[in-house]
Sequence to fold (177 residues):
Amino acid sequence: MPPSAITGHSAFAEMIDRIDVYEDRLAICLRSRESPGTTKLADDIEEPTDDRLLSIPWQKPPSKRFRQILLPHGFSRKEVRPERPERRLRLVNAIARGRRWLDEIVSGSVTDAEQIALRERCSVRHVNMTISLAFLAPKLVRAAVEGHLPRGINIARLRDAPAEWSRQFEALGLNPQ
Fold:
């Protein structure tokens, strides 16, 4: 069949006799048109010859997506578990809240942390510690959002982190790569 004659999904489906799935490949057997491209076996079963068989390297994708967790120095991947989803959500929300409160102060919509504390019914210290999360290294924030931080790296450990991003990783005992 010339390439210009093949149009649409159904034309391809008509050309395929069967697809065999193996661990390392897909074997696509093309239909014969009573041509010398096939050989007869016992019980009138056609076995495709090399010109009627396509073999495509293939592997089934994993059912669970693998997460690359930032590893503490001296630990193996097997020893580190990711943070629980509900704790990760609290951390990401706290980072967002800290950024929002910092934006309010910078834009002038509030004059200081005391106004935010009154509005949110919390202490000024809590507001200041939450605003400190707005200064986390972008790689740490991305790791928190994507769930790549190891268990134990939570709001309490990230509050009031060093200002220098490389020192933040050092303080947490994490490898920045």
User: Anything to note?
Assistant: Residues 3-57 form one domain. Residues 85-107 form the longest helix (23 residues).
